[in-house]
Specification:
Strand content of chain A: 15-25%
CATH architecture of the largest domain in chain A: Sandwich
Strand order of the largest sheet of chain A: 4-1-6
Shape of chain A: globular
CATH topology of the largest domain in chain A: Jelly Rolls
Distance between the termini of chain A: 24 Å
Largest interface: A-B, 44 and 44 residues
Order of helices and strands of chain A: EEEEEEHHHEHHEEH
CATH class of the largest domain in chain A: Mainly Beta
Helix content of chain A: 40-55%
Oligomer: homodimer
Number of helices of chain A: 6
Number of domains of chain A: 2
DNA sequence: CGTATTATTGACCACTTTCAAAGTGAGTGG
DNA sequence: CCACTCACTTTGAAAGTGGTCAATAATACG
């Protein structure tokens, strides 16, 4: 791991695996996200591009030296890392305590929220977006099997919480309803 | 949240809850751990002392100013936050993909490892330590019910992986066996 | 002691997984 | 242009893990 980098365009995932192949996604890297750890020689996670991806790379050593000289960088990196920690902890709650249906609804509401923020709109009312993940990637993110993901997507569709065109294009008729299904009391506020 | 603090002695937990009361522990605060977030007004988690606790508190504003003036502090805080992020991600793998038995074995091996490091010994062979958590706290940490925790503790005892004196005092006859039960390929290395 | 808290154990059930089969759709090459 | 293939997805049936509810046991504490 001789580089640190920042995602410019495209999507990548951070995963960890057990020896028998069970895998858990521990992070989703979207444009503007930072990859790599100053002061560490080896990568702790598998980083996988799920689309074509463009990253802005820095050699690790020079980057570390620059960090020494420029206090503001460490401070900014600290903010970003604290945000990631919050997201990770939010995800721990999801993984440890939510039902399959709530997990799916949570993921959908996160993607919807992020999509809305890109389009500079409020996440409410009727919303439409594309899922950037396969069912398997969703399963790895949510700690489920892909069959369960598929079943719960079908169930949410059957119950009118979402509408599907093809496999990836989702529309949410009523964002509040989705948030209710996600089970969060506080209406989210965490970012992927 | 007008303070940030560092734990001096005692143990506290960081938890999140869903509206219906389901709770998930997202961090365990041990001596030397840092609590609070520079640049944030409100607490995102419930902090609960599980023992008498002594913390070294700083008013948030002056602390933030000090951070501005003393680059080294931000850098040190960044290292600590990155370590916490690693621990959180390791925990995501546990919550999302491990079985109840593996979860218990993982928790025990973490406590054993930490205890060994305090006593400056290698975590191997026969080990003895106290659990700093109730069954309920273990359950909240592992994303299980306390009944399942109890059952799996009994099962590990029955299978000779651990021995129990009272509820809290554990001895592990063979650390390698426990690590095997924990299911981690790489023999851990993550710290609570 | 008696009471409250914490832990164990059992019976039953629900949800998620596992295993298996079939469906969908995009891309390729004949 | 169409059939074929491959990857992805959906759906079903059966099995299993962990959860729920409830009763009992152990321990601490006044």
């Amino acid at each position: 791991m001789d580089f640190v980098a920042s995602v410019v365009t495209g999507i990548a995932t951070l995963t960890q695996t057990l020896e028998d192949g069970r895998t858990q996604m521990v992070g989703l890297l979207l444009p503007s996200d930072f990859v790599g750890r100053p002061g560490r020689e080896f990568a702790a996670y598998n980083v996988t591009a799920t689309t074509d991806i463009l990253m802005c790379c820095f050699r690790r050593k020079p980057f570390e030296e620059m960090m020494e000289r420029t206090p503001h960088i460490a401070q900014r990196l600290l903010q970003m890392t604290l945000d990631e920690l919050d997201a990770a902890r939010e995800w721990m709650l999801l993984l440890g305590r939510k039902t399959a249906r709530e997990k799916i609804a949570s993921l959908l509401s996160i993607v919807a929220r992020r999509d809305a923020s890109i389009k500079l709109r409020h996440p409410q009312g009727r919303m439409t977006f594309d899922l950037p993940l396969t069912r398997e990637a969703m399963a790895d993110y949510l700690g489920l099997t892909l069959e369960t993901v598929s079943r719960q997507m079908s169930a949410l569709k059957r119950d009118g919480v979402i509408e599907l065109e093809g496999k990836r294009h989702v529309t949410v008729p009523d964002m509040d309803r989705l948030l209710l299904e996600a089970g969060d009391d506080n209406d989210g506020g965490f970012l992927v």
